[in-house]
Amino acid sequence: MASEYEVIALNDDEKERLHRCYDDLMSLSQSKIPSVRAAAREAVASVAQALNGQGLRYELYTNNWSD
Amino acid sequence: MRVQLPKRYWNPVTETLPRDELAALQWGKLQTQLEHLYQHSAFYRQRMDAAGCPPDQIRSLDDYFKRFPILFRDDITKAELEDPPYGTLAAVDPKHAVFHHQTSGSTGAPPIRTFDTARDWTWVSDMWGTALTGAGVREGDRAIAAFGYALFIGFWGAHYGIQRMGAQMLSTGGLDTEKRIELIMDLGVNVFLTTPTYALRVAQVAKQMGVDLAKDSPITLVVTSGEPRPESTRKIVGDAFDAYIADTAGMTEVGTVVMFECVDDPGGMHIIETDVIEEVLDSETREPVGYGEQGVRVMTALGREGISVLRYWTNDLVIKQPHTKCRCGRTWDIYEGGIRGRADHLRKVRGVWFTPIMVEDLVRSKFPDVDEFQIKLAKVQGIDALIIQLEPAIGVPRERYDDLHERFAVEAKRALTLTPEVEVVSPGTLPRFEMKAKRFEDVRQLADR
């Protein structure tokens, strides 16, 4: 069926950047500095959702945090 | 004039996945969920062991549908009582929660209490981003949601979802209906999130205020949620606002919206199938029913880590249709007509099946002179009696009440194939609702009237 909607996808470079963002933020999520930890945890949740939404990566990660 | 709303996907890739790839994505996520819950949730570990289906022994989606036990509301409330407040379902320590919400408990049943981690809450708002983008919301829009901003989930997720999308959200929790209407007019609010019942209430109050919402209000989109919404109600709301009406549905147990009506008006709601797996089962046999057949939706939510529901018997009555019924290009199947009622409201009255939405459809489609109604099932001299109270619209003269009574009794008998007792009450007598309307009561188990 014809659609008026635009189907656009990430290219390989963008995918790699998204994965890298996620890994970097995940490691900062364990920072001992409260403001950095809070920012990283909020941001990693958003990036995790971007990965999930693109069907690239799906992790249930909060139990990995040691605090 | 009704404007053409913009068309866009929130996630173009996953919204247009071929069905076999969609099933593979669901299966991958489900495996992760099963492993997570087996490791971290006492409730699910016990449940999987008892049913003989730990994660490594569930081989496919079909195998999961056949063998995994169905979860009922009572199972959740029992688990919560065992270890309050969140129960043994939790798979993440509640110290990581950033949000709490619960059902009202107004039915007398214990409330369901649930929480979201930061990751979960982002998923919740992103699900709303999916639904609202599909419904035509965009950056730069200005929205209000009519609910109390309290413990009930209501439109909390939508509030955050709209912010996530880059649109503006005005919180109106403490405002009454008149103030909300003034705000809509003064600030150019163009998106209104509400229950269908409250949309009708706003239309009535605006009329009393001398505001012509269809002609003068900036609203271009009314997003409804929280109640089944027959087509007749949609038409009244659409005409009152001269706006596009998009339905959505979710539930407290999953914390967010799971289906939505897109701008292409498919006559139902697309299921967000990347994040929920929806089965439709016969309400009696619990066997799967096919496309086009009515059954109860059974939901597996894939997005949350704190508290998950797997094969949850929602009691929502639905009819699934293939995605090809819609021209938007999404590969997500559709619930035709949205949520069509509640299986737990389905009653046999003097040998005839009855559900309250049949009365709503009758009132909204044929009785513009009725503002509000209530339905009661009672025993009268040992026999089931359906009692319908009607509240006429303000301005209907009392001398026309008998005529209304007579017309409604005739139409109701035809539509319901039952003869109800009809009572016409004075304006302002029946309760009004902001969130979920409660218009049905079955008191047959109580003393004879």
Summarize the structure in words:
The complex is a heterodimer of chains A (67) and B (449). Chain A is mainly α. Chain A is 55% helix and 0% strand. Chain A is built from 2 helices and no strands. In chain A, helix 1 runs antiparallel to helix 2 (34-53). Chain A is elongated. The mean pLDDT of chain A is 92. By secondary structure, chain B is α/β, with parallel strands linked by helices. Helix content of chain B is 33%, strand content 23%. In chain B, the strands form 4 sheets. An 11-stranded mixed β-sheet of chain B has the order 4-3-5-6-7-8-9-13-12-11-10. The longest helix of chain B is centred in the first third of the chain and has 22 residues, at 19-40. Chains A and B meet through helix 2 of A and helix 1, helix 2 and helix 6 of B.
Shape of chain B: globular
Radius of gyration of CA atoms of chain B, rounded to a whole number? 22 Å
* Largest interface in this structure: A-B, 28 and 37 residues
Number of separate helices of chain A = 2
> What is the typical, i.e. mean, pLDDT of chain A?
92
Radius of gyration of chain A over alpha carbons?
15 Å
Strand content of chain A: under 5%
Oligomer: heterodimer
Number of strands of chain A: 0
Helix content of chain B: 25-40%
Distance between the termini of chain A: 51 Å
What is the makeup of the main sheet of chain A? none
Derived from helix and strand composition plus strand pairing, the structural class of chain A reads mainly alpha
Count of alpha and pi helical runs of chain B: 13
Structural class of chain B: alpha/beta
Biggest sheet of chain B, strands in spatial order? 4-3-5-6-7-8-9-13-12-11-10
Report the major sheet of chain B: 11 strands, mixed
Shape of chain A: elongated
Q: Which residue ranges of chain B are poorly predicted, with pLDDT under 50 across at least 5 consecutive positions?
A: none
User: Overall mean pLDDT score of chain B?
Assistant: 93
Distance between the amino and carboxyl termini of chain B: 51 Å
